[in-house]
Amino acid sequence: MGTATLWWRVRGISVGVGSELRLSEARIRKRGISVSTRSSCCSSPLTLIVSSMPYEKELAAAKKAATLAARLCQKVQKALLQSDVHSKSDKSPVTVADYGSQALVSFILERELPSEPFSIVAEEDSGDLRKESGQETLKRITELVNDTLASEGSDSFPSLTTEDVLAAIDNGKSEGGSVGQHWVLDPIDGTKGFVRGDQYAIALGLLHEGKVVLGVLACPNLPASIGSNQQHSSNEVGCLFFAKVGDGTYMQALGGSTQTRVHVCDIDNPEQASLFESFEAAHSSHDLSSSIAKKLGVKAPPVRIDSQAKYGALSRGDGAIYLRFPHKGYREKIWDHAAGSIVVTEAGGIVTDAAGNPLDFSKGKFLDVDSGIIVTNQKLMPSLLRAVKEALNEKASSL
Ligand SMILES: Nc1ncnc2c1ncn2[C@@H]1O[C@H](COP(=O)(O)O)[C@@H](O)[C@H]1OP(=O)(O)O
Ligand SMILES: [Mg+2]
Ligand SMILES: [Mg+2]
Ligand SMILES: [Mg+2]
């Protein structure tokens, strides 16, 4: 029969006989990739494997991990003891729930995805818990993790020892980067909001070759809607947002199973826009966002909430703009934006730095951004960028 010459040409890539090429339907649809074949032997087998569900296992594991971590955090927030709150070396607060959430997420991901390379870039480390003074706290965290696993109603979870908990926390020591796959975890984003009894989020993203491909945001205190858009109005709190690249963003009640696809709002008149910013003035300049809002003609007062819950709320159209301008010297971390950014972009929004550059998650733990981070829909971005540029120039010339 002779040698078959068989090529697949996919966006200019030639793939020889016997190779498998895995492409998602979503990627094919989104990027308009066309597949053509050329064969000198018509009986040659041609197998183009089109996987309709890339990152599906990872998403299921991430949703399970974030939901369990949210359960642990809710338990702690209800009965927060002064002794549960500690200060880190940078003076920011950390609680038993930050550590417990990180240990749980790390434990669940490793268990649910045993055959995958395992790397997590996470906020917390076990340094303080390994000291003599951290022993009581470590015991409390271990109890919390075990209680939460037991409440899953499954005997299949072993009881973790304090050493297991330390090891699970330290799985989060990866540096990330542009090669391979890395989970990115903020076990409690918005710890100050958590301690105050307000908003916080468990934020879990997945990087593949430096790009965010999946994100889950568990927001235990987020009502079904906030802000002026009453479409989702209800008294229930607790939302889980999730997104996979090319697949859209979805929201479900935390612990629920009915999912709804969400989209950013389609407002094109900035006067009708409402604007999110940090609750904590120390985390983001309220003066600068007020000057930007004035330039845009935004009428509504800013909605101030903690954490990446802002990204979740924006992804479902509760507000139109999120502005974040940390004060001089602060360096943004990837875990504060990875999950939130894909939740917004898959819902049709745009996330950039203040100069309009996309966020680059491939450089390790830190995000090097120009002045701040801005988020909005496609229609408002050009006028938002102009207003941000003007406000930053005015600020610079007044110094
Ligand atoms: N000085 C600071 N400036 C800006 N952001 C900070 C600062 N300290 C902590 N953060 C982080 O800002 C995020 C909260 O932003 P917001 O104020 O919008 O809710 C959190 O990730 C919080 O970390 P953490 O995860 O430890 O809570
Ligand atoms: Mg923190
Ligand atoms: Mg954070
Ligand atoms: Mg945190």
UniProtKB/TrEMBL annotation:
GO terms for biological process: inositol phosphate metabolic process; phosphatidylinositol phosphate biosynthetic process; sulfate assimilation. The keyword Magnesium applies. Keywords: Hydrolase, Magnesium, Metal-binding, Multifunctional enzyme. Mg(2+) binds at residues 123, 186, 188-189, 336. Pfam families: Inositol_P (PF00459). PROSITE patterns: IMP_1, IMP_2. It comes from the Eukaryota. The keyword Metal-binding applies. Pathway: Signal transduction; phosphatidylinositol signaling pathway. InterPro entries: DPNP (IPR006239), Inositol_monoP_metal-BS (IPR020583), Inositol_monoP_superfamily (IPR051090), Inositol_monophosphatase-like (IPR000760), Inositol_monophosphatase_CS (IPR020550). Its EC number is 3.1.3.7. It catalyses: adenosine 3',5'-bisphosphate + H2O = AMP + phosphate; 1D-myo-inositol 1,4-bisphosphate + H2O = 1D-myo-inositol 4-phosphate + phosphate; adenosine 2',5'-bisphosphate + H2O = AMP + phosphate; 3'-phosphoadenylyl sulfate + H2O = adenosine 5'-phosphosulfate + phosphate. Its cofactor is Mg(2+). One of its GO terms (molecular function) is 3'(2'),5'-bisphosphate nucleotidase activity. Converts adenosine 3'-phosphate 5'-phosphosulfate (PAPS) to adenosine 5'-phosphosulfate (APS) and 3'(2')-phosphoadenosine 5'-phosphate (PAP) to AMP. Belongs to the inositol monophosphatase superfamily. This is 3'(2'),5'-bisphosphate nucleotidase.
